[in-house]
Amino acid sequence: MFKKILLAADGSPHSKRAAERAVYLAKWTEGATITLIHVLNDVPSRSDVMDEGVNSREIPNHKKERVFPIQEMIEKENIPMTILHTFGEPGPTIVREANSKEYDMVILGSRGLNQLQQMVLGSVSHKVAKRVQCPVMIVK
Predict the structure, then answer these.
(1) pTM of the predicted structure, to 2 decimals
(2) Rounded Cα–Cα distance for residues 103 and 135 (Å)
(3) What's the angle, vertex CA 29, arms to CA 96 and CA 38, rounded to 5?
(4) In terms of Cα–Cα distance, which of 91, 113, 130 is closest to 10?
(5) What's 4-139's CATH class?
(6) How do beta strands 136-139 and 33-40 pair?
(7) Residue 73: which of 107, 24, 38 has the closest Cα?
(8) How far apart are CA 31 and CA 74, in angstroms?
(9) What is the DSSP code string of the chain?
């Protein structure tokens, strides 16, 4: 049913709950795979580039570590996984990935913003749900 799952995660408690749902679905769907997308909304600092000697477009290891617990959760269940670490604005980046690779489902967490916060800040989950061409599961 949902064989190709895109899991958007940043290591927050909300994304860990979303990962639990993705693992549950994948575990009970034969041949399911999870693509974990970790979008950083910031550009690397000068210290990141200088201290770690990384290219300015490469994600520093200490930022990748945020999603290690989620990676371990997926690996523990022996679910095939691909990991994408990228810079960008989370909403549009997730939408672009989801629509370009024909995923069966996108799963992401929600911080539970109230209506005023959503209006002022915008909601990644709302942006994704409106623009993605496949089913979206938002885990509160």
Answers:
(1) 0.85
(2) 9
(3) 30
(4) 91
(5) alpha beta
(6) unpaired
(7) 24
(8) 14
(9) ---EEEEE--SSHHHHHHHHHHHHHHHTSTT-EEEEEEEE-SPPPHHHHHHH---TTSPPHHHHGGGHHHHHHHHHTT--EEEEEEES-HHHHHHHHHHHTT-SEEEEE-----HHHHHHH--HHHHHHHH-SS-EEEE-
pLDDT digits (tens, 9 = 90+) for 84-136: 999 999 999 999 999 999 999 999 998 755 555 455 445 888 889 999 999 99
Quickly state the pLDDT bin for 59 (edges 50, 70, 90): confident
Angle between helix 90-100 and 124-131 (nearest 10): 30
Residue pair 107/21 in contact (Cβ under 8 Å)? The answer is yes
Is the CA virtual torsion 45, 62, 14, 89 positive or negative?
positive
